[in-house]
Write a structure and sequence with these properties.
377 residues; Aspartate Aminotransferase, domain 1; Aspartate Aminotransferase, domain 2; 2 domains; binds 4'-deoxy-4'-aminopyridoxal-5'-phosphate; pyridoxal phosphate binding; EC 2.6.1.-; aminotransferase; transferase
Length: 377
């Protein structure tokens, strides 16, 4: 069959290719996938089951249930975000759908969308599917992988139309404080950039609270925020996320969403509502465990001589492997049955690094790090 050109412009996901290799082997410990090893909190699962028992199996409003949008509006006040549940919030099928509809609603063919690297791999395909052109903005380990004014200037982002910002960052675990964000906000205002801020790891920070760029002066009106339930509430398979932004942007995104998706999964909306109402304790518990594992992983890597940047958010370590990351990851998988992801998959600046997810139980983590140490020595 004849395929659309835009599909051919996007290579298959590098992460998937790697995991197909891992699946061919037995006894592999995977530190590769970016998803919690926990199940969704029991109260959230119960609410989903209960909604099914009550026969709540219809569509919801396009923008999502009103009570859920209200609960989201209340929840995000913890980040000093204030959004109107009727006009400024869209409930989506995962943050993934929010990324996709934002690109399609805000990017015109030929527009340039700057994306700092290394970063999550879905932005560039989303930009290309929308007809835009991705512009890579490399960040550096010397700057703790924070995005700087100088990085933006050096890569030509002054001529871009949109900037994607992902902090806490997948794959580096970098975070940005209010101070750090000030110069990025200044750049965005000076060059009239729309900012798409993917804050899906906002609840997973280990060194101070998350700051949203949308709360800096002059930024709310030019920013759309993505967040969701996959990471903080361990609900990846329920596929629920949301976007926050000015009414015109959210309205435009809903115009696409109402035709392509109708509404986000109803059962998951019940689970999400309960998660916001009563599962804060579960989030705190999971974060505590991630933090324990984070410290363990960082110190093990540094002990074995793989220089490791101190990740302060999400659930990834990003050690420097001192050579070809792809060859390292393949040999580690072949010889020691440990799967990690080569850093280069996440774009410029990722070469020579490995993405290691610590959303893995402590026993497996310990065993995997022993195996990596054997491999390295
Ligand atoms: N953004 C980032 C930075 C992610 O790491 C992920 C999941 N890997 C997503 C978005 C997609 O999340 P969701 O499950 O909500 O679609």
């Amino acid at each position: 069959m004849k395929l659309a050109d835009r599909v051919n412009q996007v290579p298959p996901s590098g992460i998937r290719r790697f995991f197909e290799l891992a699946e061919e082997k037995d006894d592999v410990i995977s530190l590769g996938v970016g998803e919690p090893d926990f199940s969704a909190p029991w109260a959230a699962r119960t609410a989903a089951i209960d909604s099914l028992e009550r026969g709540k199996t219809s569509y919801t409003a396009n923008r999502g249930r009103r009570d859920l949008r209200q609960a989201i509006a209340d929840h995000v006040t913890r980040y000093d975000q204030s959004y109107d549940p009727d006009e400024e919030i869209l409930v989506t099928t995962g943050a993934s759908e929010a990324v996709d509809v934002a690109m399609r609603a805000l990017v015109d063919p030929g527009d340039t969308v700057a994306v700092h690297q290394p970063s999550y791999i879905s932005y560039a395909p989303g930009i290309i599917f929308a007809g835009g052109e991705p512009l890579a903005v490399p960040t550096r380990m010397e700057n703790d992988f924070k995005l700087t004014y100088a990085d933006l200037e050096a890569s030509g982002a002054a001529d871009a139309d949109v900037l994607v910002l992902c902090y806490p960052n997948n794959p580096t675990g970098a975070t940005m404080s209010r101070d750090d964000l000030t110069e990025v906000a200044e750049f965005a205002r000076e060059h009239d950039l729309v900012v798409l801020a993917d804050e899906i790891y906002a609840a997973l920070t280990y060194d101070g609270d998350h700051t949203s760029i949308a709360t800096l002066p002059g930024m709310r009106e030019r920013t759309v925020v993505f967040n969701g339930f996959s990471k903080a509430y361990a609900m990846t398979g329920l596929r629920l996320g949301y976007a926050l932004g000015p009414a015109d942007a959210i309205g435009a995104m809903n115009r696409i969403h109402q035709y392509s998706m109708l509404s986000a999964p109803t059962t998951a909306q019940f689970a999400a509502l309960e998660a916001l109402r009563s599962c804060e304790g579960d989030v705190v518990e999971m974060r505590t465990q991630y933090n324990r594992r984070r410290r363990f992983v960082l110190s093990r890597f540094n002990e074995m001589g793989l220089d490791c940047f101190e990740a302060k958010g999400a659930f990834y370590a990003f050690p420097h492997c001192g050579g070809d990351d792809e060859a390292f990851a393949e040999a580690l998988l072949q010889e020691q049955n440990v799967a990690v992801v080569p850093g280069r998959i996440f774009g410029e600046g990722g070469e020579g690094h490995l993405r290691v997810s610590y959303a893995t139980g402590m026993n497996d983590l310990r065993e995997a790090l022993d195996r990596i140490e054997t491999f390295v020595s």
